[in-house]
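Audit log entry. Action: structure prediction of a protein-small molecule complex. Ligand: adenosine-5'-triphosphate. The ligand was supplied as SMILES and no pocket hint was given, so placement is left entirely to the predictor. Protonation state taken as written. Sequence taken verbatim from the request; no trimming, no tag removal. Recorded inputs:
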Amino acid sequence: MSTTLSKEPAREPAPEPTGAPPVFSIRNLWKVFGPKAERVPGSELADLPADELRRSTGCTVAVRDVSFDVHKGEVFVVMGLSGSGKSTLVRCLTRLIEPTSGTLEIDGEDVRAMDKARLRELRRHRAAMVFQHFGLLPHRTVLDNVAYGLEIQGLGKPERRALAMKVVTKVGLEGMEHRRPAQLSGGQQQRVGLARALAVDPEVLLFDEPFSALDPLIRRDMQEEVIRLHHEEGRTMIFITHDLSEALRLGDRIALMRDGEIVQCGTPEEIVAQPADDYVRDFVRDVPREQVITVRTAMRAGGCGGSDHPGSLAPDTIVAAAIEIVARSGAAACVVEDGECLGVVDHENLLAVVAGIGSERAAVS
Ligand SMILES: Nc1ncnc2c1ncn2[C@@H]1O[C@H](COP(=O)(O)OP(=O)(O)OP(=O)(O)O)[C@@H](O)[C@H]1O
């Protein structure tokens, strides 16, 4: 799998959990499709190979005993190959697909116990979904498509149009608000889909492979748009993709799925530097490691012993940037945080990252 990444510096880390309940908290979640699905989770049937289970019971395990939290302000990416269970998992979060077993909370509230009205409220106000096929209404203008969710909420025409116009501007569609969807490019239509989800000001945005139908340049544009919006608003986002470079670019954390299970959940750096097993290792094999791994992982821990800290790199500096600095100065550089020297990087540590030697042993804090 070949991967290209931007040469942007390492992204700001996601906010640390504050002790507030996670936005989403998922424990031992299963989704089994088929007759009498509820007998499968946790039973011997669940251990059968997928083909055999299907033959003997007519059931398919799409999500298998999955647990994770999504924290406020985080971009959480669910990644995996086709059929690994990404869409099913994310649709279970708002019960667009009914989970078979497990617990599921949003802000500490039990989603599985919600009645129809509460669920509608959840989907409309709290967790809005942006789909790959944008589902725009063809006879409505851009503005009225964006205002659609507000109309459902019962907002009057002038208010909803004013609000929608603000969001249209935010996603860069100003001047196109009176066009109809057919008069827009695919990328512009996707922006309308994004604006429509943003207009209801949801606590969480759920993206289901929203950009996979777009050509690579427009796709890149939209990824940057999402990063920009996230920086501006700090909104919690859950993003499905099967594209590794998209996951690495967007995710604060990535859950990598295989056959319905999460095989590893961690920061892009953890996944690239410390793959949990051979499957993940193979998945990330072609990632340009120097653009994901930081000097915090690459450094030889322990202060330099001096006080002027030559080079003085922040711990989240990516190795690619550190290589340039060390190569220019011809000397080792210190990794410094709050005036304290955490360690030193030199040619040898930095080259080891590029070569994929040793960093799996290093701790990623
Ligand atoms: N309604 C359904 N009935 C039976 N099996 C289903 C149903 N929906 C999904 N599946 C199966 O569940 C598994 C996971 O599917 P899912 O669509 O969640 O995967 P995905 O990772 O999102 O794939 P893709 O990237 O192709 O969309 C697959 O084996 C799929 O065939």
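Audit: result stored. The longest strand covers residues 60-70. The pocket of adenosine-5'-triphosphate is lined by residues 33, 60, 62, 80, 82-88, 242 (CB under 6 Å).
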